[in-house]
Design brief:
3-stranded antiparallel β-sheet, mainly alpha, globular, binds s-citryldethia Coenzyme A
Length: 428
Amino acid sequence: MSDKATLEINGQKHEFPLITGTENEVAIDVKTLRGATGGVVTIDPGYKNTGSCESGITFLNGEEGILRYRGYAIEDLAEKADFLEVAYLLIFGELPTKEELEKFHSDIKSHAVVDDDVKKILDAFPKAAHPMGVLSSLTSALTAFNPTSVNVDSEEDMYNAIVRILGKFPVLVAWTMRKKLGQPLNYGSTSLGYVENVLQMMFKRPDEDYTQNEILVNALDKLLILHADHEQNCSTSTVRIVGSSHAGLFASLSAGISALWGPLHGGANQAVLEMLEAIKEDGGDTKKYMAKAKDKEDPFRLMGFGHRVYKNFDPRARIIKVAADEVLGDLGVEDPILDIAKGLEQEALNDEYFVKRKLYPNVDFYSGIIYRAMGIPVEMFTVMFALGRLPGWIAQWREMRLRKEPIGRPRQIYTGENHRPFKTLDQR
Ligand code: SDX
């Protein structure tokens, strides 16, 4: 493979270096393009062919359905690690020793109390507010209660900001659900594990003791691991570009939550359940929805299907599909929605439209079935996605800041009006 790319523009040849990553991915380094060519830039709506950065955190191979966090296969991590270990791995680059993990968890717990005044912001929201909008607002509000900006030149300062948000975010997640359900807010307990603590804050009734259910703990732990990072997806790219202006960590995360909310991204897990419910109400008529998904005149898409990178199976969807059977079986839950989902998947996998476009179930297709079996309201599904993605967002923000990457500021090609003289009111 040559180490250069040659571009010929108006008869003039320009050479640009090729960058090859540790998994042999190749990029044309166009950092000097505009200067070398007198103003020519690239354009790539949706960045389908454009890398925004070099990163050592997550590797995806969409053709082979590979996903690795810091070199470890997602299948191994989902099976053998717990969420806090994976969070540490993503953020600091190595699986923690027992001592490192204990200190990490202890430091997180020391920051797990949210300023009581945050409740006044929560109270101001109508109960009908979507939890993702509430969560994004409360996360941004944390900046007001933790005003010291993060000095990225200080490892200690970075670490303190990271354990602070890992401690407080689960509280905000639980509070958004309790607000939606009109239930009193719970506080966590430092005697519990990270995931147990989340479940207790979400589900403990004020008039009863809460008994942990290992099935729910293990299911949520696995789901959070599977959602923890996914290289330069829409919300992570948002966190990186907002962070590149040196806006704080909490403000950058708040922006990422808003990006994740969209139904084309993390909001799909809610949209999948609403779609499957509609199909069920329609008598299970999957063919009607398949036809709608293929109809170019119809804006409907088969939610939970397709992916920008995976043009084969999404390894996370495969793991979650198996987990859905296990969790519903262990909980003794019969959910016809799961059968509708499996039927829809089989139809799509044998339909020329989907096969030709390489559309397969993605991470959002089956996850909501488990969340629902766990008793989590459908409007909270994307909030659970955000809880899982938090360590990935933090890891990517930290990498970007430590590498002192420049502020993100894409160019454009102007296609509007050329210069024209001003028209006074009576001339219009
Ligand atoms: C996530 O990027 C990440 O890594 C994201 C994520 C993560 O972990 O961060 O993996 C999480 O966001 C998963 C995706 C969740 N979204 C959905 O399930 C929504 C439904 N899916 C689509 O909207 C779509 O597949 C996207 C947005 C996920 C990807 O869209 P692309 O890459 O921009 O592909 P495209 O829109 O150019 O589609 C290519 C073709 C088009 O048809 P043609 O114009 O070629 O005829 O495929 C069609 C699309 O119309 N198509 C679909 C479809 N997805 C794509 N047709 C019907 N149903 C779908 N779901």
